[in-house]
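Rather than argue in generalities, we reproduce a single protein record, letters for residues, whole numbers for local backbone shapes, just as it appears below:
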Amino acid sequence: MCPRLSRRQALGLLAAVPTLPLLARGSKNAAVAIARCPSYSAGVASALDTLFDQLGGLPGLVANKTVTVKLNLTGSPAERFQGRPLGSTHYVHPQVALALTYALDKAGAKRIRFVESCWASNGPLEEYLLNSGWSVRTLQAASKRVEFENTNFLGEGKRYSRFRVPAGGLIYPAYDLNHSYEDTDVFVSLAKLKNHATCGVTLSMKNIFGITPASIYGDDAGIDKPNENPASGRLKTCHEGGRQPSRSSPAELDPTTSREPEYRMPRIVAELNSARPIDLSIIDGIETIAGGEGPWIKGLRAVKPGLLIAGTNAVSTDTVATAVMGYNPRAQRGQPPFTSCDNMLTLAEMLGVGTADLNRVDVRGLQIAEALYSFG
């Protein structure tokens, strides 16, 4: 990662952010709200309520609707950083998920479905959450409408749902995903504020990388059809260009393009967000890590920004979050945080998913300069 920036350097960087022409939906203004939340022990629910009010209110978005919440539970529950709780480092914290459950229930959501493609598991998501130190019963007690699905394979569905990339795609023209991503009215990315060794940052957009099922795109995916008993939750083989997905799903557009993960992964993130857009992004930055996405990355450090960030456009939300981390959201490859990779924010902007231009984002609540916390 890059040398840490001083507050003065970071503020100067924000003032110098350039603007670029936008395409399609990316020209629309977007609202992103930032709130201070010092700890998980108190104030999470009120901070989320404040964010939702600043964004126009939650009932108008979720009342009488099915809401699917993609969690960020990266890597095995057995891997810990410095022995700390998973939710204080690289997993989204269960207290944020609990507070969101209460808020969704109060706002009148018809169904609240938590989903994740569990690492090295084809068992129930509930079991994976228990292994991660979560209280499934507490979530269920918060709302009778709560349900769970491990989206690493077919799960409770009868078929996979095909999501086409509207602009034609950068790596794949379409993706086959678990039914949960189609059988919903509102799609929420509940993410973590942290760096990523391959993509620069892990925020609400990068969280969606995990919606692709290992049965089709994983290390032990099926050749002709999905492998409904994947032993690994890893997605490296297909997404890093080692092989094609199962033949039942669309192959990549051009297998002669770069096999470099730093080229492929940002493009896959951008087109997944185009094919299956996020309706509400929520980023847990109360406690987290800087320097990478999980304990398998060297040089991590524990940090406590004490922040929650939310927005109704994933590109704009991640743009603000990237700036809060002390980075230029429009940085090109070779510049932090995209030191060795292409910028997934501007790639998604090119696909018309949203704006990555801070000048076009309506920041509400805490302002970027007030929330600034250097991750460099």
Notes: The longest strand covers residues 30-36. The longest helix spans residues 261-275. The chain has a mean pLDDT of 91.
